[in-house]
Backbone:
């Protein structure tokens, strides 16, 4: 299939513009170099070796993952310096230990004393250390110990004092940038998160502890603030694909979105003034419901169409206004969806069709599961 | 892993109670025998060989699928008499022709004269016929030519008169039963759909055409009406797993739901009165948002907990009222989610862990893609 046109693909199909991927990756690398902070790209959006190669500039080092399945997948293919940035689950300590004993550098994360106790009880072989990041909640409101809690400092101290364990760093995810609109708001959250982390680093220093620090999210790293130079690392991920959501937040322009779902018209419903397409939530995900005037996606080049609703394998499309001209959309017509959330859409596809200027150059197969 | 407890599984994990699956399958077979109508079970919910075996009573015959990937997967494993119940997509005619030429009985579906024209232009080898079902919209409002349109009869006649093509049957999906609450409403829709189809069959008879007829949906086939005896087939699918949605519609009781997602507590957030669990939308899907007081799922045995929100790999859980007692939910605590929509949840899992009375008896691997 290499060399053939993406328009010849059976649909629904997720296509990835490798040139845009490379441009997004390069810009993020240059941006981080410009700020003076180490980029540790997140793999959770794409979960593929090929895209990981592009994001790491071929080094296969210094990545972050959201599942242990990703960690194992990348480790099995020669990646190293992997941070499993997920409050270490109690059922996966042994698998984490195995990776810690096998890789040069496997890093875990925690936000609770009970998790530390678990690591203490499972010392690594050959004098190896558990490399532990402390997860701080700096206003994101998901995982992490609240940065302002006195317990946060106590936990950091406990980590650094526990035998067989090293406090590698302090980690905060500023997912609250997803509520922003525009660069000013994004940078306000990026600044706040950075400030909270740096203040925490000062507290650590005051008790004699030094370690790394990292914040991340695609919006904040697409528009970094100067103070991020004082951090050790940043860990964005979605930026390699971007999506409509990121364009609305202000992280990117629509021209930076590297992924599309190709779909075809499979039905005419004149009695409802609708078209049917062969992409339902099985091909797009439910994500984005109610977020866009055009439905869960934008229909590229057809601003007057919107994706009204989806079932598993069908999408209902209607005009924003007026009567549908069916002669303009004969059965088989190819339509192109720009997904609201590329992480969610990518997760629905067992393979991504990769192209350059519309010609297929390969397939990327993501890992799945946990 | 066989013989071990499902509670030892790493989470999130989708578990399937094989005894409930078998009971659901048996009841549907008996129900259809009782009515006197052929059951053609739909594979789209589970997409696995093992569950297909159970649903067909081991015959591996007479199934319906939603994607061509399913059709090929089942055909590759010895299944036959397969109905691809999806308006035949213009990009997949050649693949459909190949299946038609290879299997004893591969059946397609259409609702537009242009699709018929496509089949006419691709005659099958060795004098084989395209076996075509006409898709009728009997009020469901998705695919199908409207049953009341004069064009519907004309299209049926055109199919039956086209060389190389056979009008195998008339097919209607009563997905509008999903808007019902309770048996009375379900049966009203089942009756209406059946009546419309039977009236259409009368019209066909009047012009000298006889063929099969089929309606389906899990609600209607869980509570069939007498007139369904006059149909040739029914084609429900979800019933083998059922889910919270089906229990709310009135198709089943919660005790009939065969699937769960196991998850563990991975975080305590006392400052927000929340728990974090290791199941986000990657493990549950977004389906069901806003449909339940308990969020996108029910948390079995914990009626006071609700799944407030999810991100890719995290779920936020809070009490319906009052303060959370964290001592009751130490990190690592196993919680069990009953999914809102099992079709959507199953699609998120690369493997289903199958158990009997909580002991693992195997793994089922679904097919994916299109």
Residues:
């Amino acid at each position: 299939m290499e060399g053939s046109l993406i328009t010849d693909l059976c649909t629904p199909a997720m296509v990835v513009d490798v040139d845009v991927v490379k441009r997004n990756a390069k810009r993020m690398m240059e941006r981080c170099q410009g700020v003076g902070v180490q980029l540790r790209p997140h793999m959770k959006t794409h979960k593929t070796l090929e895209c990981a190669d592009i994001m790491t500039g071929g080094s296969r080092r210094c990545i972050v993952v959201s599942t242990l399945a990703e960690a194992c997948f990348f480790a099995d293919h020669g990646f190293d310096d992997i941070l499993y940035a997920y409050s270490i689950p109690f059922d996966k300590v042994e698998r984490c230990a195995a990776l810690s004993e096998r890789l040069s550098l496997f890093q875990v994360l925690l936000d609770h004393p009970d998790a530390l106790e678990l690591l203490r009880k499972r010392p690594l072989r050959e004098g190896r250390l558990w490399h532990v990041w402390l997860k701080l909640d700096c206003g994101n409101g998901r995982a992490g110990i609240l940065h302002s809690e006195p317990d946060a400092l106590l936990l950091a101290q406990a980590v650094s004092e526990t035998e067989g364990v090293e406090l590698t760093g302090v980690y905060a995810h500023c997912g609250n940038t997803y509520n922003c609109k525009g660069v000013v708001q994004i940078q306000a959250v990026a600044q706040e998160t950075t400030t909270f982390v740096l203040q925490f680093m000062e507290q650590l220093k005051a008790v004699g502890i030094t370690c790394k620090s990292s914040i991340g999210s695609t919006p904040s790293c697409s528009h970094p603030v100067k103070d991020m130079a004082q951090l050790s690392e940043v860990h964005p991920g979605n930026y390699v694909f971007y999506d409509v959501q990121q364009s609305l937040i202000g992280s990117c322009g629509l021209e930076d979105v590297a992924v599309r779902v190709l779909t075809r018209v499979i039905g005419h419903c004149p009695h409802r003034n609708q078209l049917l397409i062969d992409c339902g939530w099985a091909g797009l995900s439910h994500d984005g419901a109610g977020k866009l005037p055009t439905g869960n996606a934008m229909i590229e080049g057809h601003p007057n169409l919107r994706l009204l609703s989806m079932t598993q394998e069908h999408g209902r499309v209607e005009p924003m206004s007026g009567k549908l001209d069916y002669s303009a959309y004969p059965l088989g017509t190819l339509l192109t969806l720009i997904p609201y959330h590329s992480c969610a859409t990518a997760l629905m596809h067992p393979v991504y069709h990769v192209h350059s200027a519309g010609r297929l150059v390969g397939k990327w197969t993501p890992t799945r599961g946990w």
